[in-house]
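pasting for the record
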Amino acid sequence: MKKLVLLVATAFVMFSCGSSDKGELIGVQDRPTVLDMQPYGMVDIPQGSFTMGSADEDVYHSYKYEPKTIQVQSFWMDETEITNNEYRQFVYWVRDSLAYRLLGEVHPETYLIEADQWGQDLETPLINWKAKINWNSKDEDEREALAQLYIKQDERFYGKSQLDAAQMIYEYSWIDYHAAAQKDFSSDQANKEYRGSQFNNRPESLAGGRKRLTTTEKINIYPDTLCWIHDFAYSYNDAATRSYFDHPRYDHYPVVGVSYVQAKAFSVWRTLQMNNYLEKSSYARYEDFRLPTEAEWEYAARGGVDGSPYPWGGPYVNNGRGCFLANYKPLRGAYDGDGGATTVVVAHYAPNDFGLYDMAGNVSEWCEDAFDESTYNFAHDLNQYNVYRAADDEDQIMKRKVVRGGSWKDSKHFIQTATRSYEYQDSGKSYIGFRCVQSYLGRVRGDNPKTSSNVYRL
């Protein structure tokens, strides 16, 4: 008995000596490091409240909004719309992923590695991103593999090598947290309410764990380069169609022809790119990149000036010298009266007080919200958000998503901060682009980061 007591006492002493908390409550110490970094190309939007929907009179009597006070939490926002060259990075990543798979079929020892994730051997090998793709390889097998990504020579236009846009498919999975948050999501009523989520075309009950709350999307992410033609009947826009996305001259112009679902896919890819890097560097994961909510967009567009009809704060679209302050449709159709007939290079005009460019005009921008004329009446005044994920087979009216800011083709009413409009989630237009945001909870006015949007500090 004495030996047993001595053994227990010894174990207790050893355990006490091995602990650094000295019996106090100090929390877990081996947590990942938080990287207080301002994402490259983004600006800080501090939390605040504002009167959403207040601007000029509703000249079209659309009754799509009524003024209400909204509280918005802090977030980062892209200082410009996503450009052609930035979106091309996404397209090329998908292209390279497909190329690695094709090359892996002929040289698996070089381009693929055995999949061993969390100690489990998976059937699908992983891509060896360290291997370099030689697009001008002299290896006949590699040339034939890479040729599968391009349109056949007898089908090309102008005899140039063209990427096969139909193959640019990005696949990702996501969890519907809004459905998971329901108290009873196994009822028939819940099934009806969430028909537009990932549960569409699934007859089984929603109960059953995370797998039932997860869906996989396969999105063709190549922009609609024909949007310049089909958006405007009896208008010659063929030249823009051929060159707008591909030509280096337009690298820093806002990407267009990108639908809502493509913009969402871009945000997911951007999130994974950042978090993969941070995890390798032992940093904590970042919040997701995403599209801005309608409330976030309007709050950011106002630049901290409550009640302003335009992002620059004043009631006029010209400055004191008569120069236009945004790219829109002025002077009853003189499109180039403001300096550009269609889109112009991003950041061409002065930013608002938050440092955001082109929040009025150039291209309209996708928001996260589903469009409903009565959203302001039923949505919460804390981070207002109206979410609905329409299924492919639903009526078009259920696929409406909010677009804001107006574009190069719109009159000045549509470039006002409060003006609401919509487009269908599966449509890509020559006058709609997007920008991303990232939540940054806990920030207050005056709590500015040490980094700058022009400095990428890691």
